[in-house]
Design brief:
The protein is α/β, with parallel strands linked by helices. Among the domains are: 3-94, Gyrase A, domain 2 (2-Layer Sandwich); 173-251, no CATH class; 447-568, Orthogonal Bundle (Isoleucyl-tRNA Synthetase, Domain 1). It has helices spanning 3-21, 50-58, 62-73, 96-109, 139-157, 173-189, 207-217, 226-251, 270-280, 331-343, 361-371, 407-423, 447-467, 484-494, 496-506, 510-532, 544-568, and strands at residues 35-36, 46-48, 79-85, 89-94, 123-127, 161-168, 258-261, 284-288, 304-308, 319-322, 348-354, 378-383, 386-390, 393-394, 432-435. Helix 9 (270-280) crosses helix 10. The radius of gyration is 29 Å and the shape is globular. The chain binds one RNA strand of 77 nucleotides through helix 2, strand 10, helix 13, helix 15 and helix 16.
Length: 577
RNA sequence: GCACCCAUAGCUCAGCUGGAUAGAGCGCUGCCCUCCGAAGGCAGAGGUCGAUGGUUCGAAUCCAUCUGGGUGCACCA
């Protein structure tokens, strides 16, 4: 349970009490009343804007409202003091026992402390990665993969029923190219000279696929026209690539619930059904698009196409769903795929795309809005570029030069945990610098290390406690946790449930990473003060009860750090080496 | 030309459905530690929040216009 919403409830009932006393007019809307941590700690533990928000509708001076509200709130034993400040802020200091109670709750609930019911069990589908099945995942995919996976975990923690999904683009021309490329490797495996022309994939990763194909079918396809092997090899190669991709994802600890095949939409009437659904709504018509203004493609000519009236749902121009030759455009199966998601009963859809697909957002939202009659929201999160560095020097990638960096390269070098955490130290729509050396650096400017180090220090305390023969199963006397530096840590811990809700509401898992860094900082600050003030150390010689209480604080920190790392998909390390 | 994203300290970036004197890390300055919890700690300097208007009791946050950067713009996915 979120302490801030607890206190907000208290404030609201105080306001209602004022109304029944006639100290405040009836019929006010309290929706904008907030209770938040003030930016400046000298303003107390929690601040409310109630008086200022209500001043106008109540036609009263905000300070008058604030004073009356303060009088009501001081009656609450949890609130130690209330003061009115500035234009009408209500600053509250909460009693120490309340913060001590937070620790008790953390120890009682464990990793569930902070679990929210924001989602109320609603079904949400998170689609991410969805890379073409034509090769291994590269760094660009890595960010989308980590972001999408952490977002899915976050939403799960916030009470949603989450489905992790990967859309396999196995229906377009690119898988034909893949098949031809594999055929070349297959010929090569038979000892033939081959040349990779433009429009084929020359990557080494197809060599074993060609060899394996030779093992499987022998020389059955040799010297045969494309028409006799294209379908079979395409099938075979796509499967091989998906195995590769699944393994790449697994190396980051990612496991999808659903792999959805684009190909499965063709020839099954599903695209037709989705387009028909749009047609029923009067959103499909035959027409000719205007040429794009300004930059006009050289080969542009007016063509009549089947168009989706996406402008009716917020898009800038209508979009073609069928080419002039009668084949579906790439947009058509995407519509059908999202229609399928809607039909599967999801209450909310999230697509994670690379930033280069930004131009695709509006039409996708238009499609989902149209197909669900505006009932199912689609949030599209774009992940920006990852710039690679090695020791501060930009690391140029080039497919030709062979300096093409794959997801596997990154994970093999820095490990899944550091990769994941670092990828989440930026907002998804901000570019990210990834330095292979700095990610592994053991210093304060590396948040991965700093957070892990906090957890490791707790483990160190626990090991020493065990060695000293302390009995940690006894209930700690938390009233001994009363020093300001200790209470500050408890206050930070109390913010955790609220932060989870905020991060889930905005679909922004990076907030978890930043919070963990803040919490670790608070914990390290307490640890460091133990250098000067021995009474702040976690282990107090000869005073077992005190040690047990202080260790309870350390364990609370560990519980929340591990819960947070769990959302990010980062394995906590036992000790730093 | 249009659409979307971005612009905050010297650098890299946070900033809560609009809240008080805008924060962190690095870098910089000063002090502390060289056996007892320092893979460091404490303190400080550093900002017209890209610009100009507007809404509001109150704007880095919302709206409009402009500037600068990124991405994308029929019959490729």
């Amino acid at each position: 349970m979120n302490l801030f919403s607890d206190i907000r409830t208290t404030v609201l009932s105080a306001l209602e009490a004022m109304q029944s006393e006639g100290a405040l007019p009836a019929g006010l809307d309290f929706a904008n009343v907030t209770v938040e941590p003030p930016r400046d700690a000298s303003h107390g533990d929690m601040a409310s804007n109630a008086a200022m928000v209500l001043a106008k509708p109540a036609a009263m001076n905000p300070r008058v409202i604030a004073e009356a509200l303060a009088a009501h709130l001081t009656a609450d034993p949890r609130i130690e003091s209330v003061e009115v400040a500035g234009p009408g802020f209500l600053n509250m200091r909460l009693s120490v026992t309340l913060w001590q109670g937070v620790l008790a709750k953390i120890l009682d609930q464990g990793a569930d402390f902070g679990r929210a019911d924001t989602g109320q069990g609603k079904k949400v589908n998170v689609e991410y990665v969805s890379a073409n099945p034509t090769g291994p995942l590269h760094v660009g995919h890595t960010r989308g993969a980590v972001f999408g996976d952490a977002l899915a975990s976050l939403l799960d923690y916030a009470g949603y029923a989450v489905t992790r999904e990967y859309y396999i683009n196995d229906g377009g021309a690119q898988v034909d190219v893949l098949a031809r490329s594999v055929y070349l490797r297959y010929q090569e495996a038979h000892g033939q000279e081959v040349a990779f022309e433009d429009g084929t994939y020359p990557g080494d990763y197809l060599i074993p696929v060609g060899k394996a194909l030779k093992e499987k079918v022998g020389d059955a396809y040799l010297g045969k026209p494309e028409s006799e092997w294209l379908l079979e090899i395409r099938e075979y190669a796509t499967e091989a690539m998906m195995d590769l991709i699944r393994a790449d994802l697994a190396s980051l600890g990612i496991k999808m619930d659903v792999f959805y095949s684009e190909k499965s939409l063709y020839g099954t009437g599903r695209i037709e059904a989705a387009i028909a659904a749009l047609k029923d709504k009067g959103l499909i018509y035959e027409g000719v698009l205007e040429p794009p203004k300004g930059k006009k493609p050289e080969d542009w000519e007016p063509r009549e196409q089947t168009l989706f009236k996406s402008t009716a749902h917020g898009d800038d121009v209508d979009r073609p769903v069928m080419k002039s030759d009668g084949a579906w455009t790439y947009f058509a199966p995407d519509i059908a795929y999202h229609y399928d998601k809607v039909m599967r009963g999801f209450d909310m859809l999230i697509d994670v795309f690379g930033a280069d697909h930004g131009g695709y957002v509006k039409r996708m939202k238009a499609a989902v809005s149209a197909l669900s009659d505006g009932k199912v929201p689609l949030d599209v999160k774009l992940t920006q570029l990852v710039k690679l560095y090695k020791n501060g020097e930009p690391f140029k990638m080039s497919k030709r030069a062979g300096t093409f960096v794959t997801l596997r390269d990154v994970v093999d070098q820095v490990g899944p945990g550091a990769t994941r955490f670092h990828m989440l130290t930026r907002k998804n729509d901000a570019p990210l610098d990834f330095d292979f050396d700095k990610v592994l650096e053991q210093s304060k400017d590396n948040p991965v290390f700093y957070v892990q180090y906090a957890n490791a220090r707790v483990n160190s305390v626990l090991r020493k406690a065990e060695a000293a023969g302390l009995d940690l199963s006894a209930a700690p006397d938390l009233s001994q946790i009363n020093h300001e530096a200790e209470i500050n840590v408890a206050k930070k811990l109390a913010e955790w449930p609220r932060l989870v809700e905020l991060a889930a509401r905005t679909n922004e898992p990076h907030r978890i990473a930043f919070y963990l860094f803040d919490l670790a900082s608070e914990f390290h600050a307490l640890w460091n003060r133990g250098n000067d003030l021995p009474e702040l150390r976690f282990l107090q010689d000869g005073e077992d009860a005190t040690s047990v209480a202080k260790i309870a604080l350390a364990r609370s920190v560990q519980v929340v750090i591990c819960a947070g790392l769990g959302i990010l998909g980062v394995e906590p390390v036992e000790e730093m080496r």
